[in-house]
Amino acid sequence: MKFIIKLSGLAALAVVLLASCSPKVYTQKADAAELNNYKSFAWVETQETHEQKGHNDIQEEKIRKAVNTELGKMGWREDNTKPDALLAYDVLIEKATKLSSNPVYSQPFSRVYYNPYLRRWGTLYYPSQFVGYRNGQYQTTEGTLTVSLIDAKTEKTVWQGWTTDEVRSNKVLSDKDIQAGVRNIFRKLDVAKN
Predict the structure, then answer these.
(1) Exposure of 24 by Cβ count < 10 A (0-12 exposed, 13-18 middle, 19+ buried)?
(2) Which residues touch 178 (CB under 8 Å, ≥6 apart)?
(3) Tell me, what DSSP letter sits at residue 178?
(4) How many CA atoms lie within 13 A of 48 on its CB side?
(5) Cα of 9 vs its chain's centroid, Å
(6) What is the CA radius of gyration of the chain?
(7) CA–CA distance from 68 to each of 19, 75, 151 (Å)?
(8) Whole-angstrom Cα distance, residue 95 to residue 139?
(9) Predicted confidence (pLDDT) per residue in 123-171, tens digit
């Protein structure tokens, strides 16, 4: 029984650590919006805005597929004829400067001494000690994925979620970045509905 309790405690600790590593997600909801009323959606984007954004077709397909999957889990369905809500997304990739602050510790050392009362040699050990922080900055590339939920009748944005995280590529989000970002964004939508 103790083994099961320790194992469940370790599993809970792992979940907390993994959740703390995920990027932050931000949302905005219109005050009068009742998100439980929306059950169907359609994507909106004209060819003109598609070309202005400069997205590639592969990335667009992956983002839409990830969003469709997450909405499908919440009971939504895609309906291009008479949807309750319209969906739009935007991706922004830009250079950023991040600050880093790492602790600095002294080197541990030991000292040998002679004790004349005991007529023996002894060793004193001095452990490392905190001496301050090493501050610096580095260049990185950040990607921001934004998903907007627009009321189909009023054409007003009722909910918007976005997340920003470091990306490896300079121009597109990776599959892993897309999946994690969309999953985190729609967890917030599910909370906002309740």
Answers:
(1) exposed
(2) 59, 62, 63, 66, 145
(3) H
(4) 0
(5) 25
(6) 26
(7) 23, 10, 17
(8) 7
(9) 999 999 999 999 999 988 888 888 888 888 888 888 898 988 888 766 6
